[in-house]
Amino acid sequence: MPRLYSLAAVDTDFFDSARFQITHQLDINCSATRMMSALRDAQQWVAWASPMVSADWTSAAGGKDATRDVYLRGGILFKERFFHWQDAQRVSFCVDQANVPGLVRFAEDHKIITIGNNRVRLHFTLAFETGRGARLLAPLVYGLLKRIVPRMLERYKKLLESPA
């Protein structure tokens, strides 16, 4: 097992206060129920989130305080905890531990708004902060994530709009 570093806890206010924030919004032709089903399915995350190699629930799948281990390209391990889970409305998780030194806080927020006719609007936010040791690297990571997040979310949209 790689050495793990503990990250600081976050709440939903972090998505407005984090030094590095990436936000994206898109309309998707699916129901909120379909989106929630995809959020509970670890393999569907791997299908659209290109940095992910695998995701395994370490507790019951989905729900507040659910946990999972996520392996990313490059041998990165995130131990995640879902701190907000409101069916068909909002799902937020943070990284409690990672094998990445210098990462202080990292979280994602998925706000789901039903807009009618079996459609939803996803407000997605990825937020992170680093410590002093990673300050030079953080803007590079931020730039990379700003480029890949819209593409990942387009894959997510295609997955959700395809027949289940």
Overall description:
The chain is of the alpha+beta class and 164 residues long. It is built from four helices and eight strands, in the order βαβααββββββα. The protein has a single domain (5-161), classed as Alpha-D-Glucose-1,6-Bisphosphate, Chain A, domain 4 (2-Layer Sandwich). 27% of the residues lie in helices and 40% in strands. Strands 1, 2, 3, 4, 5, 6, 7 and 8 form an eight-stranded antiparallel β-sheet that branches. β4 (67-72) and β5 (76-86) form a beta hairpin. The model has no long low-confidence stretch (mean pLDDT 96).
What is the CATH level 1 assignment?
Answer: Alpha Beta
Strand composition percent? 35-45%
Major sheet description: 8 strands, antiparallel
Q: Assign the CATH topology.
A: Alpha-D-Glucose-1,6-Bisphosphate, Chain A, domain 4
Order of helices and strands: EHEHHEEEEEEH
Gist of the model:
The chain is about 25% helix and about 40% strand. By secondary structure, it is an alpha+beta fold.
Key phrases:
8 strands; alpha+beta; 27% helix; single chain; Alpha-D-Glucose-1,6-Bisphosphate, Chain A, domain 4; 164 residues; 8-stranded antiparallel beta sheet; 4 helices; 40% strand
